[in-house]
Amino acid sequence: MSEIGFVALFSGINVGGNRIVKMAELRAFFEELGFTNVASYVQSGNVVFRAAKADAVALTRTIEAAFEKRWGFYSRIMVRDAAWFERLVADNPYPEVAEDPTKLHAMALEREPTAEEIGRLAEKCTGPERFAVKGDVLYLHAPDGLGRSKFAEILPRTLKVPGTTRNWRSVLALAEMVSPAPR
C-alpha cells in the first residue's frame, strides 16, 4: 500500500510561552509512531508526514492520544490530507487579498458548521473583517491583521466549532510541503 501525505495542525502549543514542544522532538515523535518523510513548519505546531493509513480521523485519534501520553497535556490536532489542502487553496473566496498573507487566514474546523452556527457568527461580523465558510474551512479576511481583529477574538466562542487558524503564508507552505507532485 502506498503512503499518502498528511498535515497535523496542532492547537495550543508553543503559543505565548506555554506548552512548549520543541519541533525536533515533535518530528522524532512522529517518526517513532511509524510515519515517514516527517517535516515541521514553523514553531507553532505544523507537522507534514506520510502514512499508509488513509483515515485522517483514525490518525488524529492515534496522534492525540500518544501526544497526551508523551507530553502530559491535551492538544487538539486536525489531520488533513494533501487533497484537502489543494481544495483549501483552490476554494479561497478572497483571491484578491492572497498576495498579503498576513491579512488572510484559514481556520481548519473539526466539522462543517451548521447554517445556524454560521448565521450566529455573521451577526457578530460588524467590523472590517469578512468571512466565508466552505465545508470544514472558515476563510477570514482581516484587513487590519488578526492581532487587531475584535471579530477574530470572539470567533471561536461564537462559532462553537473547534478549529485552528493559520495565516495564508502557512497555508501555502503546508500545501506545497504535503503536495504529492511538484507544483
Automatic annotation (TrEMBL):
Source species, domain of life: Bacteria
InterPro entries recorded: DUF1697
Name of the protein in its database record: DUF1697 domain-containing protein
